[in-house]
Amino acid sequence: MPLHGKCPDWHTNPFNGVRSRFAHHSWWTIPDFDPQLGDIKTLWEGSRWDWVLHFSTSARAGDPDAIGRLNAWLEDWSLANPPYLGANWKCGQEASIRVMHLAMATVILDQVDHPLPSLVELIRLHLRRIVPTLRYAIAQNNNHGTSEAAALFIGGTWLERISPDRAAKKWAASGRKWLEDRVKTLVETDGSFSQYSVNYHRVLLDTLSMVEVWRLKLQLPAFSELFASRAKAGAAWLAAFVDLETGDAPNIGANDGARLLPICRTAYRDYRPSVQLASVLLAGAPVYPDGPWNESFKCLGLPVPAAPGLITARSRVFDKGGYAVLRQGGASLYMRYPRFHFRPSHADALHVDLWLGSRNLFRDSGSYSYADDRWNRYFSGTASHNTVQLDGRDQMPRVSRFLFGEWLGSLNVGPLEDSGGVTGFSAGYRDWQGARHDRTVALSADCLRVVDRVQGFKNSAVLRWRLEAGAWHLNGHELRSPGIRMQVTASVAITRMELVVGQESTTYYRLDDLPVLEVEIAAPGTIETTVQWTRARE
């Protein structure tokens, strides 16, 4: 979004130029999906007020015009979005993100204790929107509940401080209560989060970081020891998935493009700012040495970490959430297996991501757009993951746009094994039609071996390897690209082995082609994939 010149049209999809028909309709009458408008998130993104943080940091850095632009944009948004009318009031979580961003802006500008009356009223209006649908958000068992509880805590304690009344006190208490409950319920003891998604995990951590920044600023009582331990584990979880050199991470799970604290001038897919801030605030120690990811500390008035960082890259299993992380030399492997205590959004059982240093060789899909039913089915379905698809169906039957039934359970899991420079792991499942897939992986510094055993299907089993873009050449059962050699063998006849074109979405609403190796068999058996490479830099 351009941050100079006139304000955007808050009700127009910038990708197709279509303006919402519901700009003056009560929020509860507006449909979730409007074919004419397209994805409603294209409106919501500008109304999350990331620009509030941008203008605030610019003002802090000495831009004399930034405060004027910030106030002009806030006034324009308020005039264009009267209370509770239009799509930008439809979602309580979107209102919550605006509250958090306003609060962080006053921290950046050192205006927490002296906000304008209009800003106080804006916060109050937003909290009144959040409260009626809070129970719905809690019932989702995802980031909606954590975001809305955080906004009530932040906004409620803020109003208690500057404009106290009975409602403010109630909102603050409700926010604290539900934050405690959501972290206890949704964050496992190993740090895994209910949404089984790397990017939604970042949303969780950014939310908890903003809560802690606010708590420290207002010198409010600490949360419980259980809250602190789960938050600390959650920070360590994301740190285990992030590439140290680039800050990128596997695109596992749903990815709606959210980045709630875009203070550092780093790329969207650089997770280090979120990991560093959360690790210091929630776990008490930095992960990385000094770098651009520390800019958040300066802007938020926090001490910049002086320690060199506690960088650890080791193999481990997060069994509560169903993740295995294998490392050898400069190679990393991330494997998903089903441990569904909450609803899965992707049919990605036994998916494998392979990284050679910062190079993502075997890749996950992302989401692209929730509003486009065709692409939503593709990206959340089994066909867009590095696993085996049996009889052309998803691993779980689809009940609705965002819901699978017959949740999988894991069979024969692990343990993680290290021997002679090779790290191994295994897991399997049986689906609702009785078909079974077992996968064993063995990673060394220059080789990966994957053995897939499939049985119980009727017609076909298709193994897919979603590859990085590049020059790939298939010759018989061998696939090559510069520095990479892949061989595939099977205990039964391979009926088809070919390179096809698939799609990936590294950021929301972006669609790119990528090569996909498909290997098909028609009878029960095993497929063995061996990948060799020039040893990754350690």
Written description of the protein model:
- The protein is α+β, with helices and mostly antiparallel strands and 538 residues long.
- The protein folds into 2 domains: 27-238, Chondroitin AC/alginate lyase (Glycosyltransferase, Alpha/alpha barrel), CATH 1.50.10.100; 323-533, Beta-galactosidase, Chain A, domain 5 (Distorted Sandwich).
- Helices cover 31% and strands 21% of the residues.
- The chain is globular, with a radius of gyration of 24 Å.
Any descriptors?
21% strand, nine-stranded antiparallel sheet, 538 residues, five-stranded antiparallel sheet, Beta-galactosidase, Chain A, domain 5, 20 strands, Glycosyltransferase, alpha+beta, 2 domains
- Work out the helix count: 13
- Mind telling me the CATH superfamily name of the largest domain? Chondroitin AC/alginate lyase
- CATH structural class of the largest domain: Mainly Alpha
Helix content range:
25-40%
- By DSSP, the count of extended strands is 20
Low-confidence stretches: none
Radius of gyration: 24 Å
Mean pLDDT: 95
Q: End-to-end span in angstroms?
A: 38 Å
Looking at the overall shape, the CATH architecture of the largest domain is: Alpha/alpha barrel
| Fold-level CATH name of the largest domain | Glycosyltransferase
Brief summary:
The protein is an alpha+beta fold and about 550 residues long. The protein is built from 13 helices and 20 strands.
